[in-house]
Amino acid sequence: MPPKKHRKNNLPDPLQEGIILMDTQKHKWRLGPMIAYGGFGLVYLASPCLDVPIENNAVHVIKVEYLENGPLFAELKFYQRAAKQENIQKWMKLKQLTFLGVPVFWGSGQVKHLGKSYRFMVMERLGEDLQTIFERQGRKINSETVLHIGMQVLDVLEYIHENEYVHGDIKAANLLLDYKHPHEVYLADYGLAYRYCPSGNHKEYQENPKRGHNGTMEFTSIDAHKGVAPSRRGDLETLGYCMLQWICGSLPWERNLKHPEA
Questions:
Q1: Catalytic residue check, 169
Q2: InterPro entries annotated for this entry (predicted)?
């Protein structure tokens, strides 16, 4: 069941480290320490080895939200519909790719803890996000690296667009390096992913000023400013703005934004 829309998203109370979660496929996962939080969810290290303490080099994570929150439900539906590993492998073979930066989805489920209901999703562990690297390097990334990143993101966008989805929130904070191979870049966080063409029926272009300016303000596409639903061209436009910022350090309109984080 989808979450109820009238409930406000909020950060959940932490789950107890060491508890065992069972996903919908009856696979069990041991919950490790929390390593991140943000938006509306928490991220924990995890392991399928139930009797062994989880080390810092664990290769799985579990994302947790309250059951009534929306972003993790939307992300889960994206992975179930569009990002099954067998489909990704077929696509890579067709396109002769050795890498495609869509994170590996391992499972999902629901759990009750101390009277509260949670939704969880098990993913492969990724490394640093590009925003952290961008800030650490003085808000500049060399053009060769930017082109390398851009090409990898374009591969991901071609795949998800072909599978009826747009990402809707491309930015450095949602681009994560592989945990062991930092030259590989993943496009993560599909909580705002939008199914623009369900069952092959393209949704109509429609401007709605009441819904304008959604998303990360400095990277908002022209369509989004007009209140149009997320689109393929909007993803590409936003990627272009990101690449320009990484090379130049800032975008021309950033100084005019009073609350760019909104």
A1: yes
A2: CK1_Ser-Thr_kinase, Kinase-like_dom_sf, Prot_kinase_dom, Ser/Thr_kinase_AS
